[in-house]
Structure formats: structure tokens, C-alpha cells
Write a structure and sequence with these properties.
Distance between the termini: 72 Å
Number of domains: 1
Largest sheet: 2 strands, antiparallel
Strand order of the largest sheet: 1-2
Helix content: over 70%
Number of helices: 5
Length: 196
């Protein structure tokens, strides 16, 4: 990985030499780096969703189908059918949950890469905390700047043409969260008479 970090270093370090003031340049450079991470993460998550959306939609639809069957069985007082359908629903929800967790992980991979580069470049740099004897390494300022960049990115990404295009491609099929069958509220417990 070292040769790759050395290769991108010559490009990324340019963002840290914009004004000639060390403190300002670090904040600006890290903000730009965080913004690049956000754009790459957003693009990746849409790309992965575009590739896997059919599978995610199928699993979510299957989970809702079995849950609705379980609710109908519960209303009818059929305990065995309820347990069987509920087990299948839980399995399908599990698959859907982990697929969507994988999508979330796809959003964060650029951060890991950015931190690896920052370690290569700023490992020895310390940022003293005013009024205390403590200091932060490069990770602390990056996290703070990344959070700020994230909230700014959320506000502007809706107006980005590429974001709108990717979003329309990704939602070419019904969304698993908005266009799936509705979930019925659970009915009150059914009182069944026990055989003596």
C-alpha cells in the first residue's frame, strides 16, 4: 500500500498548500479530503445498491410477505402457522438487514483510505488543546472536520446533477423501503382455551 500512498500523496498534499498558513491549510486540506471521501462513499453506495437492488427488494418483499402471513395466522389463532411464518420472516429480515449494513460499510471505505494517507503524512503532528496539557493526533481533527463536511454535504448533494442521476438509476425498481407492502400493526394477543 505504501507505493499507492506515495503516488496519491503528490496530489492530495496540494490541498494542504493553498494559503501558505499551516493551520488554515490543514483545515482546508482536511475539509477537501473529507468532502472527497463523502463523494466517493456516496457514489459507491449508489453503485452497490444499483447492482444489488433486485436482491435487496426480493428479500425485503419476502420478509414482509411472511410477516403478513404470520399476522394473519395470529389473527386466526393458528399458533403453529404463526410460528412457522414468523421464523421465515425473521430469516428474511436478517438477510435484508445485513445487506443494508453492507451498503452502509460501502459508504465509509474512503475514510479508511484517507486516514491511512494522513498517517503516512501527519503521523508525528500533534494539535494542542487550548487550556489543557493534552493534544490530539491527526485523527481527532479529521473526525471533527468530517462531521462538519458530512452535514454540509447532506444539504448540497440534492442539487448535484450526478447525485440525482445516480439516485434515479438506483431507484429504477421499486424501493425496498418505500414501495414495499405495508406492515399491519400487531393485533392484541389471542386468548386460546387450553385443553384439560
Amino acid at each position: 500500500m505504501q507505493p499507492l500512498l506515495q503516488f496519491i500523496d503528490q496530489y492530495l498534499i496540494m490541498f494542504y498548500r493553498l494559503t501558505g498558513h499551516v493551520g488554515v491549510d490543514f483545515v482546508l486540506g482536511t475539509f477537501i479530503l473529507a468532502f472527497i471521501c463523502l463523494i466517493l462513499g456516496e457514489f459507491t453506495i449508489f453503485l452497490v445498491f444499483f447492482i444489488t437492488r433486485r436482491r435487496i427488494f426480493e428479500k425485503t418483499t419476502e420478509a414482509n410477505k411472511y410477516q403478513n402471513l404470520a399476522i394473519e395466522a395470529l389473527k386466526a389463532g393458528n399458533k403453529e402457522a404463526y410460528q412457522a411464518a414468523n421464523t421465515l420472516a425473521n430469516e428474511a429480515f436478517g438477510h435484508s438487514f445485513f445487506q443494508q449494513m453492507a451498503l452502509s460499510a460501502a459508504f465509509l471505505w474512503p475514510v479508511c483510505f484517507a486516514l491511512a494517507w494522513m498517517q503516512y503524512r501527519f503521523l508525528e503532528v500533534e494539535f494542542p488543546i487550548p487550556g489543557t496539557g493534552w493534544s490530539l493526533g491527526f485523527i481527532g481533527p479529521f473526525i471533527i472536520i468530517y462531521v462538519v463536511a458530512y452535514f454540509l454535504f447532506k444539504r448540497v448533494k440534492g442539487g448535484l446533477r450526478i447525485s440525482s442521476r445516480i439516485s434515479s438509476l438506483a431507484h429504477g425498481e421499486p424501493s425496498p423501503t418505500t414501495d414495499r407492502p405495508g406492515l399491519s400493526p400487531l393485533p392484541p394477543p389471542i386468548q386460546t382455551s387450553e385443553k384439560k
